[in-house]
Specification:
The chain is built from two helices and two strands; from the N terminus they run H-E-E-H. It has 63 residues and is α+β, with helices and mostly antiparallel strands. The protein has one domain. A hairpin with a 6-residue loop joins strand 1 and strand 2. It is globular, with a radius of gyration of 12 Å.
């Protein structure tokens, strides 16, 4: 198990990314990372998944 706030790290190292809701700290979603290993940060599929997670969850936090 890996705990991190770094979305890049989560996508590169994990089989699943668990996104927590802000309050009261519940699981918002579990996202399967079904990408072959080794994963390269510059690979299009890695970048696409990272961008999807950031746009869905962190755009709300900034607003």
């Amino acid at each position: 198990m890996l705990g991190t706030y770094d979305v890049d790290e989560a996508v590169l190292l994990s089989d699943r990314v668990v996104v927590m809701e802000a309050r009261p700290g519940r699981i918002g979603e579990i996202i399967d990372v079904d990408l072959p290993r080794p994963r390269d940060r510059s690979h299009a599929a890695v970048a696409r998944l990272r961008d999807e997670i950031v746009s869905r969850y962190f755009s709300e936090a900034v607003a």
